Amino acid sequence: MKKRNISLKLASLFITILMISCSDDGPDYVDELDVVYTNYDSSFDFSTTTTYALPDRVIEVTGENIGDTDFDEDVDYVDPVYGDPILAGIKENMDAFGWQEVDESSNPDVIILPTAMDTVNLYYYYDWGYWGWYYPGWGPGWGWYYPGYYPPIISGYRSGTILLQMTYPSGIGVNDNIPVLWTGAINGLLEGSTSSIQTRIENTVDQVFKQSQYLNK
What percent of the chain has pLDDT over 70? Predict the structure, then answer.
């Protein structure tokens, strides 16, 4: 179970965007407020990895399931109306980059874990247990760590956030921690019609990969 310190730079960025949006010369459309962030472990050689696994659901992190330990029964999932475009966007971009999707039981080189949350809090919380069901055989005591870089802090003013984490099962450490090689985060206002939000999801997931050319084979 992990908590991360507030990233002052990212928080300042979001606050600045909010202030601009309230001015006379601010953005005219809500998608102009979407923020895309990516980071990765620069010491890792991504050319050594070719296969990936992707779950068929996106976990929703809510105030109700934060701190829970019985994840098998209490995990919530994003409505497929929004979850499916997230997963489709990841798959489309990974395939276009030359990766091969395989089942999680086929020992993939990496596993991409997508989560989403609706937050008004200036902190980001993540717990390994949300994905316990997707890592059969892994039990209490193992978790994530970020070698060589720090993940973003997700903060917002009634915003929706999508977090993508590329984990590396073969790199498990002495403390049963699985490395997170790459992180992509999307933050935006929860405004607009369903079709509008879907389009923004598709565009921002694409942008995550445009900013991550080191994943391209």
Answer: 64
Per the CB < 8 A criterion, the answer to whether 163 and 60 are in contact is no
The tokens of 141 are what? Answer: 């005591």
Please report the beta strands in 2-149, taking only residues with DSSP state E, as ranges in sequence order. 2-3, 35-40, 51-53, 59-61, 76-77, 100-101, 110-119, 125-126, 143-145
| Helix 80-96, helix 194-210: angle, nearest 10 | 30
Check pLDDT > 80 for residue 24.
no
Determine contact, residues 125/151, Cβ cutoff 8 Å: no
* DSSP 8-state code for residue 27: -
pLDDT band at 27 (very low <50, low <70, confident <90, very high): very low
What number of other Cβ atoms are within 10 A of residue 189's Cβ? Answer: 20
Cβ atoms of residues 110 and 167 within 8 Å: yes
Residue 33 burial (CB < 10 Å; 0-12/13-18/19+)?
buried
Is residue 93's pLDDT more than 90? Answer: yes
